Amino acid sequence: MSEQLNQPVTARVYSQESFGSVDGPGVRFVIFLQGCAMRCKFCHNADSWDMQKGEALTSDELLKRALRFRSYWADKGGITISGGEPLLQMDFLLDFCKKAKAQGVNITIDTSGNPFSRKEPFFSKFQELLNYVDLFLLDVKEINDETHRDLTGCSNENILDMARYLSEIGKPVWIRHVLVPEYSDKDEDLKKLDEFIRSLKNVERVEVLPYHTLGVFKWKELGLDYPLEGIDPPSKERIANANELLHTADYTKYLE
User: Fold this and answer.
1) pTM for the predicted model, two decimal places
2) 10-residue block means of pLDDT along the chain (256 residues)?
3) 13-250: which CATH architecture?
4) Parallel, antiparallel, or unpaired: how do β-strands 173-179 and 203-210 relate?
C-alpha cells in the first residue's frame, strides 16, 4: 500500500510551449494536457481529444522543465495549464499545482469548464485546487444552450455554473469567446453573453478569439470530416462588433 501511495502522479501531455504570450498575463510556460470530452466543430487540436495519447510525464518532470524558463517570467508570468481539457486530469493538477505554488509560481488554468460539477468527488478536489490557482481562463463557447450543443456536442449548463461559482468565491477569471460565423457571432447571443458576464463579480478581462482554419489539416490526418467546411474566419467588422457588444474595452486589467 505504501508503495502505491508513493507512486509519482503522471499526466498525458499533448505539448508544451516555452514562451507563451497569449494564455494569461506575461510570458508563460504553457502545458497542453491530452484529452477532451467536447467535440467542438472548430477545434484546431482534434488530435488532443484522445485521453490515451500524448507523452506520459510526472508532475516533477514537467515542473523541472517549466522552471528552466523562470527568468523570463518577470512579475506577471508563470505557468498556464491548458488542453485538451486540464480538469479531466484533476489528480495531476492537484499534485503539480501544489508543488508549483510551493515554488512561488503564478498558476493559470485554461479550461472549457466542461468537467465542472458540484458533485463528489470532483467538487472537493476542485475546491482544493483553488488554493493553488491564481487565475482561470474560462472559454464560454456560446451562451445559447441549443447552439452550444450543436457547436460542441455538449450542454453549457455546468460551464455557466462554474463561472457563477468562481464569481461566488471571488476567483479571478478571464472570459474567452471563440467567434464562429453562423454559430457564435449572432448579435442577440452576444448581448446575452454580455449580460451574463456582467452578472459576474470576478471578471478581469474578456477576449474575443476569432475562428480560424489552421487546424483543418489535423482533422484530415485523423480521417475526420471537417464540420465547418466552407465557413471563413470572421471579418474585421464582425470581430469589432463582437468586441463592442461584449464591452471588452471595459475590462482593463492586464489589457496593456
Assistant:
1) 0.94
2) 64 96 95 97 95 95 97 94 97 98 98 98 98 98 98 98 98 98 98 98 97 94 95 98 97 60
3) Alpha-Beta Barrel (3.20)
4) parallel
